[in-house]
Design goal:
8 strands; 155 residues; single chain; 8-stranded mixed sheet
Length: 155
Amino acid sequence: MAENTAEVLTGAAVLAAALGFLVYAGQGSGLAPASGSYELKASFRSVEGITVGTDVRLAGVKVGTVTSLALNPQTFFADATISVKDGILLPDDSAILISAEGLLGGSFVELQPGGSFENLAPGAEIEDTQGAVSVVNLLSKFVGSGSGGDTETAP
């Protein structure tokens, strides 16, 4: 009977540790609601490379996360909602764009503050957006531009 009790207690401890790691991982990935933050909205032509939980950065420093992505059926743009830490006040002429960490790196959302004296209110929409640039499309245009047009004829 003592062996069964020890096995049950060990199993419960392992289960509690696993649950603790799951909660910790959910908070670190942006899946849990961020406390001490406010939401902003933006509409992009393309959000390729980002998902819910993607970092939002200002001057290279993480200041928030992407909290939702949805297709707007009227405009056919992707509507994004981001959460930004309280205390980060952005001018109302700020820009938001999707950037890549390099050719093979991941994507993130970058905030570029404007120069206005008025700040964005919680829930406001950032009008100046730039969507994701597809590296594959750029490469296909580059390769395609070199193969057409000038053909030499042999004498």
